[in-house]
Specification:
With 372 residues, this protein is of the alpha+beta class. 59% of the residues lie in helices and 13% in strands. Strand 3 (73-78) and strand 4 (83-87) form a beta hairpin. Helix 5 (169-178) packs antiparallel against helix 6 and helix 9 (259-267) packs antiparallel against helix 10. The longest helix is centred in the first third of the chain and has 33 residues, at 97-129. The two termini are 25 Å apart. The mean pLDDT is 82. The structure holds zinc ion. Residues 58, 62, 82, 111, 161, 169 line the site of zinc ion (ZN). The site of zinc ion has 6 residues, from helix 2.
Length: 372
Amino acid sequence: MRSFSVQVGRLFGVEVRLHLTFLILPLFVFWTESTVRSANGPRDLALVGIVLACVAAHEIGHMLVARRYGLIPKAVILLPLCGVTVFDESRSETIEPSAAWKRDVRVALTGPLVNLVLAIIAAGIIFPVVPGANLWKWPFLQASNLPRSLVWANLYLAGLNLLPTYPLDGGRILRAFFARSMDSAAATRRAVSISHALAMMLMVAGLFSDTWLTMVGVIIFSAAQLEERAVIFQSVLDNVRLEEVMLTDFATLSPADTLEDALDKAVHSLQDDFPVVRGSDMVGVISKARILEALRMEGNGYVQAVMNKIFEVSVRQESLSSAFRKLTARNLSIIPIVEDQRLVGIVTLQNLMHSMALLAESRKLRRDNAES
Ligand SMILES: [Zn+2]
């Protein structure tokens, strides 16, 4: 999900990332402007800055409304036309599917609304203050007329984002309607395929008319792909049971082991974290790093004294997302899986990450095969 984007900062605790298509924008502005007149670096950059600021305002609008619904944003990826906000699933409140579509429609509408309001305010100020702005003169977006560009950048953003192309806001609204009658992954897939078709049409249409259209098509295509990947991950998280990914062949330690013995066992295992068992009872967990640290600080002792006695257990049928929530909420790195109080397996953060990537890939392959 993070591919093709770079982190540029944090805003209100939310990671802000720029998608690499944003780097095309300055080049594109230089190129189209230089065909009209000699390029002017600072003004061209200012135009890019205006577009970026309008996208950011749009995205902040989405986030504020999402927050009111208990969704906690983790990162926002800015593309030249829109943003993709990634929510922190482990901390966000869950909501009934019947209520979710209304929430999604409201969150989606806020972005274009913010741009519309900004355009009206900007026009209201510019019209009397800057007489030479010529708000109705073509081309609407032009580095040599930044006030006019500010008004039109907002109008374009509002209009374009209402196209029914997922993950633009119009497409999100469409998806929310699909989600009323099908599960969320299927609704996303349907919205994404409509979006891909429209993006293709824009790209081709742009070749015969305005190159901006091709640019818009490329951006929509990248954004749809970003979202689709996030959705596949989420469906893996929700649908895969722990018994499908848990490690059943693992080493355990005893509370009566000395730290030196424990280290000796750890050296011969790939595991970084170990369940500590007495007889058939789980009594704690300990990591390789903790064993080493204790040996270094306090010398040899017993596992009993340094193991972590606070841990969470899960059962086979729990989903990966529930395991992830437990791991991240308490900063744990291992969860023992128990059945009738007996330890039957473990999942570790390392093993979850690994199996998720594998599962997402195999699902995508299976689906591509089914579609072709
Ligand atoms: Zn939006």
